[in-house]
Each structure stands twice: as structure tokens, then as C-alpha cells.
């Protein structure tokens, strides 16, 4: 089946799953989508759905359900298979997800969050890079210079520490030493993050609702970094006790 045909079939199945009145049709659509996610073609189809400027089915309502599903596919596949991807494939996927983050920087918020979660999962599994966080921050700096890029960067900086904390018992292919090194490297960029948050807080917004929403996001990001720092401190205390014993 051609790539465009697969994209159309995915879009149709997602629409049926979410909107069809017949339960048998919804069950059939769900079964097809579950099987589709297990195929290698799902990588390319999902990536294309997130990065292509043209909608697959313009006749469908602009609800971004298909794009959200594509982001979920990539996150799951990265979590389950990302460790085994070739370096070139990981780099291409990283660039595609950064492009998708910029494309959907103004929403929907849930879609941007899913894209950033997929990005975080991918960086966690980029163990072949000596400093994956440093490379990510260089990419985020470029993203920040693009239109509305600050919004995507803020969301990425929020979910990345959360994903690190939640993934401590995740992929068994990533050993404890690699996770520890990854977290230490992440925390080494704390000053850069704080500077970014300060700059965001100083930007003037005349709209009161936007002002409060922006401050809420900044506070959430700050708390995310505080929690990962607390996690590392707690682990350091545990290791210290183990050595003393």
C-alpha cells in the first residue's frame, strides 16, 4: 500500500473510532489501528502526518485527532523500540519531531505535549550520543529563534524532566548508570532553563488571560525541574547510605 493511501486509511480509521455511531465499526477501526502501530510503516506514516503541511483528508473536521494519534504512535514506538533504532534514524526522527513542535507550537496544547513527550522519550534513548541533552539544548536554541518557538521550548523544558523522573523504571535497555548520567547532564543546564524562564516572565502581555496562562506554564516548568532535582538528591542520599553500610 502506498504511503498516501496508508495515511488516508489511518485518518479514516481514527475518525471512525472517535465518531462512528456503530460500535462494531469502532471495534473494527480500533483493531486495525492496533495492528497498524506494530508495523514498521507506522514510523514513516506517523512522522509524515505530523510534519506535512497538507492535511490528508481536508473533508474531515479540523480537530487534530489524526495528528494527536500520530504523536501517540511515535511516543509508544520510541518507548518500546527506540533503543534499537539506528543513529541516522534517531537523528531524522529528532529533527522531524522538532519540526512538528514548531508547527503546532500554538496548539492544540495536548498535541504539543504529546510531541514533546515523544521527543523526551527519544532523547532518553539516544545513549550512543555522548551528550544527548547538550545536543537537544542546541536544537531548542534554534527552535527558540523561530516564530512562536518559545512556546514549544517551554513545553519541552517542562515535560523533559517529568519524563526523566517517570522513566526511572522504564526501558530496561537503559542501565542505571546511563540514567544517572543523563539526569546529571540535564541538571547541568538548570541555569540556562532559569534564564529562559525569567526572560519569558518579563515579556509583556496585555491580555490578562494570556498573562495568567503564561505564568501558569512557567510555574509548571519550574516545578518540574525542582522535582527532578529532589529526585536526584534523594537517590544520592540512598547511594551514600548503601556505601556506608
TrEMBL record:
InterPro entries: ARM-like, ARM-type_fold, Exportin-1/Importin-b-like, Importin_beta-like_NTR. The chain crosses the membrane at residues 218-239. GO terms for cellular component: cytoplasm. SUPFAM superfamilies: ARM repeat. Residues 108-231 form the Exportin-1/Importin-beta-like domain. The keyword Transmembrane applies. GO terms for biological process: protein import into nucleus. The keyword Transmembrane applies. Keywords: Membrane, Transmembrane, Transmembrane helix. PANTHER family: ARM REPEAT SUPERFAMILY PROTEIN, TRANSPORTIN 3 AND IMPORTIN 13. This is Putative Transportin MOS14. It comes from Cocos nucifera.
Amino acid at each position: 500500500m502506498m504511503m498516501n493511501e496508508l495515511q488516508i486509511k489511518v485518518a479514516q480509521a481514527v475518525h471512525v473510532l472517535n465518531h462512528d455511531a456503530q460500535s462494531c465499526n469502532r471495534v473494527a477501526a480500533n483493531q486495525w489501528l492496533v495492528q497498524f502501530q506494530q508495523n514498521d510503516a507506522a514510523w514513516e506514516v506517523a512522522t509524515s502526518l505530523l510534519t506535512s503541511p497538507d492535511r490528508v483528508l481536508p473533508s474531515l473536521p479540523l480537530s487534530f485527532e489524526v495528528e494527536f494519534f500520530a504523536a501517540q504512535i511515535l511516543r509508544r514506538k520510541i518507548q518500546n523500540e527506540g533503543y534499537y533504532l539506528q543513529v541516522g534514524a534517531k537523528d531524522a526522527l529528532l529533527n522531524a519531531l522538532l519540526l512538528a513542535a514548531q508547527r503546532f507550537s500554538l496548539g492544540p496544547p495536548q498535541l504539543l505535549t504529546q510531541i514533546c513527550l515523544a521527543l523526551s522519550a527519544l532523547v532518553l534513548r539516544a545513549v550512543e550520543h555522548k551528550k544527548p541533552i547538550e545536543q537537544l539544548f542546541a536544537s531548542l536554541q534554534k527552535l527558540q529563534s523561530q516564530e512562536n518557538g518559545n512556546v514549544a521550548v517551554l513545553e519541552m523544558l517542562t515535560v523533559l524532566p517529568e519524563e526523566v523522573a517517570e522513566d526511572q523504571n522504564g526501558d530496561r535497555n537503559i542501565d542505571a548508570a546511563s540514567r544517572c548520567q543523563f539526569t546529571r547532564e540535564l541538571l547541568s543546564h538548570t541555569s540556562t532553563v532559569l534564564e529562559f524562564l525569567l526572560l519569558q516572565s518579563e515579556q509583556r502581555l496585555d491580555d490578562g488571560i494570556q498573562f495568567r496562562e503564561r505564568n501558569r506554564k512557567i510555574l509548571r516548568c519550574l516545578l518540574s525541574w525542582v522535582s527532578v532535582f529532589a529526585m536526584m538528591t534523594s537517590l544520592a542520599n540512598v547511594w551514600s547510605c548503601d556505601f556506608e553500610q
